[in-house]
Amino acid sequence: MGEGGASVSALAFAVTARDSGSFARCGRLTLPHGVVETPVFMPVGTQATVKSLTPADLTDDIGAQIILGNTYHLMLRPGADVIRELGGLHRFMAWERPILTDSGGFQVWSLGDLRKIERDGVRFRSHIDGAEVFLGPKESMAIQQALGSDIVMAFDECTPYPATRDQAADSMRMSMRWAADCRRHLPPNDQQALFGIVQGGVFDDLRLESLQQLEEMGMDGIAIGGLSVGEPLEEMVAVLDGLAPHLPPDQPRYVMGVGTPQDLIRGIDRGIDMFDCVMPTRNARNGTLFTDSGKLNIKNAIHQRDPSPVMEDCSCYTCRNFSRAYLRHLFMSKEILASRLNSLHNLHYYCALLQRARAAIAAGHWPQFRDSILQAY
Question: Where among 249, 276, 303 does a domain terminate?
């Protein structure tokens, strides 16, 4: 507690605009390394880098306000102690704006047979050298404290899909025990905010039970996990529909690992403030580019002599300077620059899409903007 009994927190959040016909809203999230306007898309910098891009690219051209790092990958290489000795993750990667670090739970879950779940965490073998590693709430909090991120994610188990109700319930309740451990190991402070992660599979009652427990723990923000793990779109939307009326009105809400442009729009419509996904950079490296007219495959022969940019109204560095013909040439020639220019465009498109979403909500035009994007895809 601070002076006068006020609770200590590393973040402040205020809603600045709402759409009257949905749960869509704009907000302002203040963190130790800066202010973030929401809804916001967070580029994924898993290993202290957004693949092929510099921090200057991310700030000056893409307009990224906040990026992600990952506990699992950074603990294995170069090691949290190395990053701490070199001044923390911000200094290590020369990024001055806010950083959110994922807890490592999803990556450990994805190891499958290489992991063994125990009461206090997960024992697994490194994908790099096979060494045995243990990661639980205590370890995840210590690593994320060493990294010095603005937002720390609680350590959880990502409930697989499909899962029976009993499996989803057991998984969720273990995640809630771990979340309580995370709060104990990282109590409220003015340097790092802690987000809890709602689990429970596709079962509304389990999701609401999880949300209620996290609110009672005094988390600084609420994330929704266990989506984009193979479930049909209809079930993902149903989970968000079930949670939307119950999400805390005065805290930021984050859907993890989602997703396509239309997924972002659907999430905003259901009150989500924060998103991340590897899709824009992964698709860029595979030659797929996002536009307001849908996805464009730069590999297609139709682009061989096309002098037009990827998207006519796009202000990114790639669209301002290069033709589809040149981008196709780079990709077909397997030039490194192809990944860089495609990533610049896709991340600019994602960040600009959410900037346009904020403007539409503030101006009272959200339904029209929402429908135009959903129709394009």
Answer: 276
Residue 165, CA distances (Å) to 106, 207, 211, 225 in order? 20, 11, 17, 16
Which positions are catalytic? Answer: 102, 276
Query: Does 288 lie in the same domain as 248?
Result: no
pLDDT digits (tens, 9 = 90+) for 273-282: 999 999 999 9
- Inform me whether the pLDDT recorded for 34 exceeds 80: yes
* 25 and 95 inside one domain: yes
Q: State both tokens at 173.
A: 């309740």
State percent of the chain over pLDDT 90. 92
Instruction: Report residue 84 as tokens.
Output: 């701490």
- The residue among 210, 226, 229 whose CA lies nearest residue 169 is 210
Contact of 370 with 356, CB cutoff 8 Å:
no
Beta bridge partners of 289: 296
CB 41 within 8 A of CB 353: yes
Q: Is residue 1 part of a domain?
A: no
Among the listed residues 361, 377, 27, the one whose alpha carbon sits nearest the alpha carbon of residue 369: 361
Question: Do 96 and 175 have their domain in common?
Answer: yes
Residue ending a domain, among 276, 309, 324, is: 276
Both tokens of 341, joined, read 């220019």
Q: Which domain holds residue 303?
A: 278-377
d(CA 263, CA 367): 15
Q: Are residues 61 and 136 in the same domain?
A: yes
The total number of structural domains that make up the chain:
2
Maximum distance among all Cα pairs of the chain, rounded to whole angstroms: 68
In angstroms, the first-to-last Cα distance of the chain is 48
